[in-house]
């Protein structure tokens, strides 16, 4: 160990002889390591953000949407005819063992007014189950109850964006807002969730009891008063997702009297799966960024090899002398190898610092979230050492196998 | 006295393109322990090649070479390096000191390739510098020293591993006559006081007069091998030179 430190000291002194040259050589490694760290930080930042967003939509979510139906051979677009009803929701909750909860939903754009302020947002008519399924919590006040739904109570829960735009810093709970000339008492405000994986502001909503929404705000479907826009379903666990999908499909086909061989009149989508695909693409992206950055590390390594070759030529006489006084092949080999590794490790350490600063600057100025992992720092450190060994070996070998007589005579 | 160097029928051939060049054409001699030998001869006579072989830097084409009783002819690269490290000290015409490295560290260099602990290496380097009259200059770098002082650092370096022999290749070639005499005086003192076998290759007949034995080479063969009955006393000759205000004198 002390021998390694001693050779490191000798190497440092040899590198100080040509300060500018050593610094420029190190620059290649510094840029390489810094690029790897910053790029991986940006990539894992993006991944972490997507994971956070996936968390925010709730776990084990399946959404059931009305599908297209054929009417006399004319295929109508998805949702053109309302095929899902509140009864479907109740049946799924009652008959599918893999389903934990079902929340039917209707939605539509509304203008919400409070005093002199007004705000355009999306109204969602839901049941209290929606809160558990979407994993909402209350920032203030209470969510409305099943009794409110049954009674079609004029009560509303605001998303944070809506609350802020109408009330500013004041607590809206207990205040009255007006939607389509109907006064609603604000029951509470949801804890903000931020952006959804598809980029929507999940806090720009106002939640109403589904019954009230249909009767007073969005208007009931004329063909079927019990029709709903979609069903949010929560499976009992991540493993039960497929099972829940199959159970629902069978149940809905039976309830909708679809003959075997005909298409479903509804669509079941596993939301978690959809967003997991996004996560995968973000991960691929971060690997790609890291790979591109490591190219510059390899270029830096070639710089080291180049300089070490020059150094071996310049110091031929020194090598000859060392051989004459008893340096063995491995002594010379290790001397130059240690020098190359010192160069690359030093560059690696500086590069890590530069990379940390760079990722901080990126998140500060570009507002991108970056995550610097300990693993990426350690990888960068080990990788830069390996670059030193790999690119230092050839010049070191060249030095070690010089003919001492030729080397001593070298001018 | 036992022979420290035994050479029998030493032949060295080189190949220059397709033409074989016979540099050494069968040389045999012995050098006794504690001797002071000057090897002379015109350039191309093969004396440098002989020095390289004696110094275990090169291998003979045929013939045998025993150094301190060990046959070195069949040794590999690293074994030869070890022999050089333990038994031989080198002094070169161009000093060959490491630049930007203190005198003490230059002297320590051969010990860096042994298992000796740092403090012992340092002690021995100091002792060697003291014996060549460079006490107080341990931290000077070669660029801060005169030519004579640099050569003395080189001699200290050759001494530091307690060698059986010191091989000096034109040690005074780059020095003026006064400084040359100082270097020869150090060689004579080391030879007499410490019993180190000295082998000096030189062009300078004056230098050869201070040796106990002169070997002349010509065309790859031993031409003349003579004992000097009464070698010169370098220290005395140095004192008889008109005093110069050179720092060299103070250092001796």
Largest sheet of chain B: 6 strands, mixed
Strand order of the largest sheet of chain A: 4-5-10-7-9-8
* Average pLDDT reading of chain A: 86
Structural class of chain B: alpha/beta
CATH architecture of chain B: 3-Layer(aba) Sandwich
**Distance N to C terminus of chain A:** 36 Å
- What structural category characterises the helix and strand content of chain A? alpha+beta
What does this structure look like?
The complex is a heterodimer of chains A (411) and B (252). Helices cover 56% and strands 18% of the residues of chain A. With 411 residues, chain A is of the alpha+beta class. Chain B is of the alpha/beta class and 252 residues long. Chain B has a single domain (36-53, 86-251), classed as P-loop containing nucleotide triphosphate hydrolases (Rossmann fold, 3-Layer(aba) Sandwich), CATH 3.40.50. Chain B has nine helices and ten strands. In chain B, a hairpin with a 2-residue loop joins β4 (62-67) and β5 (70-71). The longest helix of chain B is centred in the last third of the chain and has 17 residues, at 177-193. Chain B is globular. Chains A and B meet through α1, α10, α11 and α13 of A and α2 of B.
